[in-house]
Structures are given as structure tokens and as C-alpha cells.
Amino acid sequence: MKNKKYIQIFVGLALVVTVALGYKFLVADRNKSELDTRWVASVESSTQVFDHSNWQTILDDYLISDTDSGVNLFDYSGIIDDGREPLDEYLDAMTSADPLSLNRAEQKAYWINLYNAVTVAVILDNYPLVSITNIDGKLSSFGPWDNDAVELNGIALSLNDIEHRIIRPLYNDYRIHFAVNCASIGCPNLAAQAFTSENMEQLLDTAAAEYVGHPRGVTVDGSKLQLSTLFDWYGSDFGSSQKQILETLSKHANPETKNALLTFSGDPDYFYDWALNGYCSIDNECGS
Questions:
Q1: Do residues 89 and 163 share a domain?
Q2: Which helix (H) or strand (E) holds 162?
């Protein structure tokens, strides 16, 4: 009987490990950077500039960027109280446009702002909630990233499509990870400025420095190093080895952190806070 009990325990543990590993590889496959060739085209001679002023107004009105924590928070309850029409109108304008008619630099700003605006809309559709991960998806119960979110040129796109099948493979710019926001405390900040082709480089560098310089991005404690799990999930975007990843992060770090990253040996710890990046003007109003 004792042996049978041990066998049952072993089988149960094996099943848990198998499911966990299967889920990990499934998520990794879905998040693989793989270009959807339907979005390759651009018109480099185009001087058309997409107007993101409505998104800027939304950020001005509902993004709180002067928090003591250094984490930008979004007032989801505030925009619901005021009416979400400005956001819906902005998304309508974006989905009515043809991004393929823009030049590549304009497209980059278009896709980043679209991702961030759609994420806010997804949260509003399911608000209140404690975490974006509480929203069921069509391929898993862990978040909405595979759900159809917008339709462009007659093509349904999910958040994962926008990030992993368009932005990442088109631009091969690791700083993209500091620009797209997943509505969570652990994520790089939702930028207080709308991205444009003109401010792109400055905003990406600023976002990288803010995240690497914040404890949720990089924490050095003596000989210990804790990194955001973002750098584990998408490590290959930052370098082909741990040494290269840390060298990449060091480019955006202050001198002390830079030295720690360049001289670190061993295995870093990883952490990610999935709590909603919601601002609550009244205690317990948010996510309850």
C-alpha cells in the first residue's frame, strides 16, 4: 500500500510538471517573434503623419506619472466615470486607417500606440479587476493576449499579433519591450507621451533607462541580482547569452548598476508583479 501511495504521488507530481512545462513551451511558442508578411509593406516616400493627439489627451487626463513608486498608473475608474468615448474614437480612427500607407518610422509609432491603447480598452472592458491575467483568453486562462482585439484591413489582430508578429520582427529593437505596456506594475511604464516618428528614439531610450533604473527592472543587492522576468521571457531580444543580455541592460544603467551588471557572475533571480497598474483615488475602489 505504501508503494502504491508513493507511485500515486510520483504520478501526480509528474503530471503537474508536465502540464507546467507544456504551458511554458506553449506560451513561448505563441510569443515567438515571427513576422506576419501581410504587414511588411510600407510607403517610404509617404509624408503622411498619423495624428496621435487624441491619445496624448487621454494620457494627459488619466495617466498619473508623478507617483512616489516611480510606476506610472492609469486612472481606469476615472475614464469610465467620464466616459470612454475619446478612447473609442481614437481606436476607431486607428482601425479606419491603413498603416501600410505610412512609412516605416510612422508605422512604428502607430503600432506601439495601438498596442497601448488597445490594452487600456481591454482593461476597461473587464474593469474592475486585480490583474490583467484574470481575464480569460481563447487559448489559455492566463490573460487576453491571444484574443482578437482589433480589425485592420479586414484582418483580426490580437495583442500578441501586434507585438510578436509585427512590431518585434519588423524592427528588431529590444527597446520595444520598454514601450509596449501590459497594464501591470511589473511592466515598463505606460509612457506619458504618445509615440511619434519624431520623438521615438528619445522616448525609447528614456523608457529603457527608467525601467533598468527601477527596482522592478533591475535590483542589485551585494552579490545578488534580481531582474524583471521580462528579460527571461525575451532574453534573446537582448542578447544571445546572459553576458550579452547584461551588457545590453548596462547601456541604460547608472554607473553603479552598470558596473554590477558587467561584473556579475552566477544566476540572477527573476520577478514580475502582475498587479494592475490602476490608480485609485478612493481606497479599495480599484480592482475590488
A1: yes
A2: none
CA-based end-to-end distance of the chain: 47
How far apart CA 168 and CA 182 sit, in angstroms, is 15
- Tallying the residues shown for the chain, one arrives at 288
The verdict on 19 and 113 lying in the same domain is no
Angle, helices 255-263/242-250, rounded to nearest 10 degrees: 170
Rounded to an integer, what distance in angstroms lies between the CA atom of residue 77 and that of residue 230?
28
Residue 278 forms part of a structural domain: no
Task: Tell me the whole-structure pTM to 2 decimals.
Answer: 0.89
Q: Is residue 288 part of a domain?
A: no
Residues 6+ positions from 31 with CB-CB distance below 8 Å: 160, 164, 233, 234
Scan for cell 527592472, then name that residue.
217
Residue 201 and residue 228 in one domain: no
C-alpha cell at 11: 504520478
Q: 3-state SS string over 84-151?
A: CHHHHHHHHHHHHCCHHHCCHHHHHHHHHHHHHHHHHHHHHHHCCCCCHHHCCCCCCCCCCCCCEEEE
Tens digits of pLDDT across the chain (288 residues): 444 443 333 333 333 333 333 334 445 566 899 999 999 999 999 999 999 999 999 999 999 999 999 999 999 999 999 999 999 999 999 999 999 999 999 999 999 999 999 999 999 999 999 999 999 988 776 899 999 999 999 999 999 999 999 999 999 999 999 999 999 999 999 999 999 999 999 999 999 999 999 999 999 999 999 999 999 999 999 999 999 999 999 999 999 999 999 999 999 999 999 999 999 744 455 554
User: Is 223 domain-assigned?
Assistant: yes
Nearest-angstrom CA–CA distance, 260 and 220: 7
